[in-house]
Design brief:
The complex is a heterodimer of chains A (about 550) and B (about 100). Chain A has about 550 residues and is mainly α. Chain A has one domain. Chain A is built from 22 helices and 5 strands. In chain A, α4 packs antiparallel against α21 and α13 packs antiparallel against α16. The longest helix of chain A is centred in the middle third of the chain and has 33 residues. The radius of gyration of chain A is 24 Å and the shape is globular. Chain B is mostly helical and about 100 residues long. Chain B has a single domain, classed as Helix Hairpins (Orthogonal Bundle). Classes of the chains: A mainly alpha (about 550), B mainly alpha (about 100). At the A-B interface, α1, α7, α8, α10 and α12 of A face α1, α2 and α3 of B.
């Protein structure tokens, strides 16, 4: 590199700069994200200025309105053709507005709305000192078991900050699958992760476990995002740019304006391969794929159950969206290198999740391992490298997220003196005591297992079909085998609920408010609709299955 | 000086940070090692920026600093609450949940 070129980096010509072009931002097309982030900021102001008594109602109102408005904006954009013919890249190349982005944003917003209902539930815990309480700590800063905690409970404090935190997380998740350069991807990753770390620490009951879950999630999450960032640095070094389209061009070798520095780094495959691997690793951590799954069971078990449900559903949707875009838009030129690796990851994820789940005795841990197995099934669709692969993954994610939130919402209902009774032995005979709750949970478990006439079956069928068409028949065989293994422990829970005697000191089933009923009802409805009449939604996902580049 | 040397330094710092995360017990020290990894990434960004002669990498370094600062806020809040509960910041002691 010549000295003058470098010198121009830190000096400028003497004549004054007359005009700087303002960046062109398409606010209308970014409105879903802007509405959610804006409402989160309003939520912060509510915490500062609204009296404590009315904060809960104000927060719930603002959050619900924002999520509904953002969903309406997504639908309007899709109806306007931004998902298909008018798909393009907005915000000076930072955000893609296309079919997969809009489909996933719609899914995340609906999942967020349902998650919000479970966050706002205040009838499950017994009334404390005349105040209705939710699943979150009275005051997160007070030490568990201390006098200050008791005083906070007596005063009727609730952590209403969870609502803005939830909105910030959703805001990050909306950007994550739509990010069109690596910097936006990284910032979105952090914006979605940081609120989740905090939410994990806020449980009302079992606070030690909750804090422990938060520390584990935080340290491992920060570790993984450091790897992601180093991967981004190496890819930037390889291509001289963080824009997806530019990197894809450099990978394909179709770039026209090669300067000497780029010619130098372009030839260095180590930068590309190591950078791509580190970046994919960070995303696989977020989806909870083996071998980056170690955090999943602990965090799912320790976090407050509404947070677990939301996290399990929405984070997976956002992270798989980002992974799809990365592999299909940035690194398609490298697919002969990443496909074998993803094959191996998918196989060990499916088998590992299903096999370890058999030994679990805690319902939340069981669902955590089941979510790992599901990540493997979805990866099988990612590997297909075809349009069908994209649309099947979109469909699977839409079906899976509502089932997950519904299942964790049912877990919040089964309670004993210590809060939620998550040990499996306490679920024995639940079907005799409260047939309706047990039947609903059985529907969710059958959907997880992929029994026909549930959304799980339609999703699995679509994903495996796409994988088989893409030449991954052995992967499909492993998938079917691990589905069978997984079905074993789902059925075992159903048998436990319906065909064993209830224990005399067993848990009770709390009667929830309409909020949780709505969340569970939404889960049952999507399970049955997507299972019995999936065609409309498969077509919708099919139309949305093309990335803009 | 050849900017590639800075890349080797960045890789070295990143490895030191990653090793620290894996072998240290105190949550604060683990967290500092993560910060070291992020700073190694910054060095790599700036070095690559110098090699390519465009400013993207230097701008990204600023974003990384802001993200790292936000991460410190969240991380210290979580670690301090754990420490106040257990009177220990050891990551080995936090073992209520196991496989």
């Amino acid at each position: 590199m010549s000295t003058t070129a470098v010198h121009s980096l830190w000096t400028t010509a003497a004549e004054p700069i007359t005009k700087i072009d303002a960046p062109k931002i398409e606010y209308g097309q970014l409105s879903p994200t802007l509405i959610v982030i804006g409402a989160a900021l309003v939520g912060v102001l509510i915490e500062a200025f609204v009296p404590r008594r009315s904060r809960y109602y104000a927060q719930v109102f603002v959050s619900v309105v924002a999520l509904c408005a953002a969903f309406a904006a997504v639908v309007a954009l899709a109806a306007d053709g931004y998902g298909t013919t008018k798909a393009h890249i907005a915000a000076m190349g930072a955000i893609a507005v296309d079919g997969p982005a809009l489909f996933l944003q719609g899914t995340i917003l609906l999942a967020g709305l349902v998650g919000l209902f479970t966050f706002a539930e205040r009838r499950l815990d017994p009334v404390a000192h005349g105040n209705r309480v939710d699943s979150f700590a009275a005051q997160a800063a007070s030490v568990p078991g201390s006098d200050s905690e008791k005083a906070a409970v007596r005063a009727g404090f609730t952590t209403t900050e969870v609502f803005p935190l939830l909105l910030f997380a959703i805001g990050g998740m909306l950007i994550f699958p739509a990010a069109n350069d690596l910097l936006t991807l990284f910032v979105a990753l952090e914006v979605l992760s940081l609120p989740l770390y905090l939410l994990c620490a806020l449980a009302r009951r079992k606070r030690l476990m909750s804090q422990e879950a938060a520390v584990k999630y935080f340290l491992l999450g920060a570790f993984a995002s450091a790897f992601t960032l180093f991967g981004i640095a190496l890819l930037y070094g390889y291509a001289g740019s963080v824009s997806y389209a530019r990197i894809a061009q450099v990978v394909d070798g179709t770039v026209t304006d090669v300067d000497p520095a780029l010619a130098d780094t372009m030839g260095n495959d180590a930068l590309l391969l190591i950078g791509g691997a580190l970046l994919v690793m960070g995303l696989l951590f977020k989806v909870g794929a083996v071998p980056f799954h170690m955090w999943t069971p602990d965090v799912y078990q320790g976090a407050p159950t509404p947070v677990t449900g939301f996290m399990a559903a929405a984070t997976k949707v956002a992270a798989f969206g980002a992974l799809l875009r990365l592999l299909y838009v940035v690194l398609p030129g490298l697919r002969w290198d990443w496909r074998p690796v993803m094959w191996a990851v998918a196989i060990i994820t499916m088998l590992g999740g299903a096999v370890v789940a058999i030994t679990q005795t805690d319902i939340k841990r069981l669902l955590a391992y089941s979510s790992i197995a599901h990540a493997g099934f979805i990866l099988a669709g990612v590997i297909a490298t075809s349009k069908d692969g994209v649309s099947s993954v979109l469909f699977y994610l839409a079906g899976y997220s509502f089932v997950t939130i519904g299942a964790f919402a049912v877990v919040t209902l089964v309670r004993d003196a210590g809060g939620e009774a998550t040990h499996l032995s306490k679920w024995a005979g639940l079907g005799r005591r409260s047939p309706l709750v047990a039947a609903v949970f059985a529907v969710f478990l059958l959907a997880f297992a992929g029994i026909p006439l549930t959304s799980g079956f339609a999703g699995k069928f679509a994903v495996f079909k796409a994988a088989a068409d893409g030449g991954a028949v052995p992967l499909v065989i492993v998938g079917v085998i691990s589905s069978a293994i997984a079905a074993f422990f789902y059925i075992r829970v159903i048998v436990l609920m319906f065909f064993s005697e209830p224990k005399p000191e067993g848990p009770t089933v709390a009667v929830p408010s309409p909020l949780t009923m709505l969340a569970i009802g939404m889960g049952v409805a999507t399970t049955l609709v997507l299972g019995i009449a999936p065609q409309y939604f498969l077509d919708l996902a099919g139309q949305a299955g093309v990335f803009v580049r | 000086m050849n900017p590639v040397n800075y890349l080797y330094l960045a890789a070295l710092l990143f490895t030191i940070g990653a090793t620290g995360v894996l072998i240290r017990r105190n949550a604060i020290v683990v967290f500092m090692c993560v910060e070291l990894m992020l700073n190694a990434c910054n060095l790599a960004f700036v070095a690559f920026s110098r090699m390519h002669g465009n400013l993207d990498g230097q701008i990204i370094a600023f974003f990384t600093m802001v993200v790292a600062a936000a991460e410190v806020v969240v991380g210290l809040a979580i670690i301090v609450s754990l420490f106040r509960t257990r009177h220990s910041a050891s990551v080995d002691d936090a073992s209520l949940m196991k496989l």
